[in-house]
Fold this sequence. Notes:
Blueprint lengths: L1 H6 L2 H12 L10 E8 L2 E7 L9 E2 H7 L2 E8 L2 E6 L5 E3 L3 E5 L4 E3 L3 E3 L6 E7 L16 E7 L3 H8 L14 H24 L12 H5 L2 H14 L8 E8 L2 E8 L2 H21 L12 H12 L2 E6 L4 E7 L3 E8 L2 E9 L1
Parallel strand pairs: 3-6
Antiparallel strand pairs: 1-2, 2-12, 4-5, 5-10, 6-9, 7-8, 7-11, 8-10, 12-13, 13-17, 14-15, 15-16, 16-17
Helix pairs in contact: 4-5, 5-8, 7-8
Amino acid sequence: MRHSAVVTCAAFVSMLTLAGAASAAPGDAQARISGPVTHENLAIYFIHGPSKAGPAPLTLDEAMRAGSVVVRETSNVNSLEIENLGDKPVFVQSGDIVKGGKQDRTLTVSMMLPPKSGAIPIASFCVEHGRWSPRAHENAMQFAAAPALVPSHDMKIAMQEPPKPPPAGSPYYSDTAVRQQQVWAGVATTQDRLSKSTGTNVRAPTSASSLQLALENEKLAARRDAYVGALKAAAADSNIVGFVFAINGKIDSGDVYMSHALFEKMWPKLLEASAIEAIGKLHDEKQAKAPAEQDVREFLAKADAGKATVKLLDFGMRRVLHDADSGYLIEAAVDQGWVHRSYLAK
């Protein structure tokens, strides 16, 4: 079943190749960067550039809520199974949190799932340490939705940075296990920061270790919505294909897409995650002046030029990691093009 799904995806891969090949690198001199637009300690910069014409693919959350994509529990903390049952392509973004199963997870790769994909494995990390049974009204063997993105720079680093060699004399060292511990620590730190900033314990009584349930806290949602209300409309330009954000005067990360249509679909989720991270850092340090547009351009350009390593994924896609002194660029790519670029400052 999986083999036949790959064979029938030739046209799908060709479409993605043409889509990505037309897109310029965000750090190129001809790319336009606008901003910042700011609210409290969060500064947003928009990337304007070429865009694939036509409708955007479904997002993972759209497809899961419609029942056209199923994410299944495997009882392996660091691997799930995903399948597109529908007749439309679906975009999966690294950092997507899937809610349910035996414990909430976050997915670690960006990719496009073609129609009728067949079931494939997808790497994940647990973002709910301690639960291994269904919550009320949830299916332990299937996930219900993908409502949020990971709102933590430290967690994204733990998930995306290059593997490290094992320490000398450690024959049982597991890079994945080390990263999982870092992700769990990131969940706890994020919950602590958000509790301090909101003046309430954001940990949910039903599962205190769940990052997703913490993000649903009512007081946190009210603080988040203030950021969203101030910044959401700034992304109205039809040439915007991505964004970069800074918190407390420091560039954090950014995402760029093959089309404005896909960016537009992802923008609410991206902004909410950025706002939540900013809320958690309100008390970290004094607010500083937002970086200059040229600083953002240099950050993107340096990451674009970083040393690249390639990992093959399903359906002819590749994960290309560019490692530069100042940050990482993680591309979801096909042939000579790309679908999604994720930038992460070191």
